[in-house]
Amino acid sequence: MMEINLDEFQAAFFEEVAEHLQSLEDGLLQLESHPGDEELIHGIFRAAHSIKGTGGALGFTKIAGFTHHIETLLDQMRIGKLSPSSKRIELLLLATDSLTGLIDAAKGEIDEPDNIVSLTELLQFELEAISDPATDFNMPQGEVEEFSLFDEELTAGPPEATSRSGREKRESRSVSSESIRVSVGKVEELINLVGELMISNSMVQQAFIDSKRESHELQEAITEMGLTTRQLQEKVMAVRMISIGTVFRRFPRIVRDLALALGKDIHLEISGQEIELDKQVIEEISDPLTHLIRNAVDHGVGSPAERTAAGKPAKARIQLRALHEAGNVVIEVIDDGAGINAERVRNKAIERGLISADAVLSDDETYALIMSPGFSTAEKVTDVSGRGVGMDVVKRNIEALSGSIQISSTPGQGSCFRIRLPLTMAILDGMAVRIGEETYILPLLSIVESLRPSSKQIIHMPNRRDVISVRGETVPLVFLHQLLGAKTGSIDPCEGLVIVVEHNGKKFGFVVNELIGQLQVVMKSLEANYGRVNGIAGATILGDGRVAMIIDLAGIVRLAS
Fold first, then answer.
1. pTM for the full model?
2. What are the CB-based long-range contacts (under 8 Å, 24+) for 310-317?
3. pLDDT (tens digit, 9 = 90+) per residue, 242-288?
4. How would residue 351 be classed by pLDDT, with cut points 50, 70 and 90?
5. HEC letters along 192-234
6. CA-to-CA distance for 9 and 299, rounded, in angstroms?
7. DSSP track, 58-109
8. I need a labelling partner for 371 at 20 to 30 A (CA). Which of 83, 162, 253, 541 fits?
9. CA gap 422, 445 in Å, rounded
């Protein structure tokens, strides 16, 4: 008799159960606002039922047993014997958390939660309110064995529900048949190969140009190969793109729990969940966004009493939205609170020695000070957040993604934290420049303009920090050859070029020898293959086979400071 290897099925279960847990939590949060929505209750029930059935079939008896109590309570709501009160939804959310803990424990990642017994008693206590002798509170022996592997068909419930679930199941199957699960490792391998193909294509094109041959057929074939390679690259990169909704969906729960703990009434509006970003960007942006959302709840908006006294609705509003803008993805966290007190931020910065007392700063430059390490204007530090507590980490993490963050605020109306991110970190639209004898790549999106200044535009400052005047605006000059250790003498901006770039709302004039041209490059991690280098974001291979470093804008600005 053939032996069945359950390890393979268990791995599939752990992948699938994460979706069911998310459905369970999302559904409960929505049910709190729409307690009369029967479809929601049926959806939540199905998620719990699937976890119990599959978990039991694979031998996870604790998971199946505990989920059975959750499912039983949901079933009583489904058939109308219990109402989905806030108290019961809170209990079910706690049970979902512990169920997640049980599943993580089954993976071997953590110890089992220690509140399973007490939560089970609470779930049973809710069921005891029903005087229905037919209600079975105990897990029947061997019940889990009745469920077939990954079978989502319901075996109980009113005819209407069974009919509806059958229809949805068919629709679900229709969708799932158009997609397959592929391991991340295989996708990464494919992307690396396409990257190599792009580099090879560039080298063939360059070799043809260098050969100075006049073959129309060969030139046409190379152009056609370039187009096909580009299309292939776009399709393969699309495999890595996932919806930002996978990150956004965690925030309704976070906002709800924090608002409850802080005695606030907050409505979270989410939009743009369908926008897709590179998987790596999605994974890395999660923590900074969580910090900004917690900040908005803790310090962005006030209590109902404070808001009423300020003439605002007692219920605060926080918006979390994603949108496309000029080839980038922008994520905004907007609150309708009292706004950031610029004068208070300025005084705190002077007190900490971050700026001098006579420093002249715009409002945006003043708000940017709260991103300084350890900076906070909070009267008391809470365990939730504080404007400035960890904001430097938020900024650093976003910059590590080649992104940027801007803060704007209007007194009495609220604040907006605006994050700009690239769609992907694997491909970069860049500008090749020559610095000394080497070629470097500057991110194209950060470039405002390039110019060859006259000597009258250069202003030599007493602190040896030269600036350039561009149409009346003073821009500090950054001599890249000094920071990057290029083997060349000093570059006179009037003989070379100044590329004006924008970073965090401030402009800088990067001095280079020559502008080579625009190109799209495949980014290779320098840190993984060599080590971290300040001011360098990665490396790429040019069409002539040479390696070019990709400049890390944030790193260069830090070095220049």
1. 0.66
2. 310/338, 310/412, 312/336, 314/265, 315/265, 315/266, 315/267, 316/264, 316/265, 316/266, 316/267, 317/266, 317/267, 317/269
3. 889 888 988 998 899 899 999 999 999 999 999 988 888 888 888 88
4. confident
5. HHHHHHHHHHHHHHHHHHHHCCCCHHHHHHHHHHHHHHHHHHH
6. 46
7. TT-HHHHHHHHHHHHHHHHHHTTSS---HHHHHHHHHHHHHHHHHHHHHHTS
8. 253
9. 9
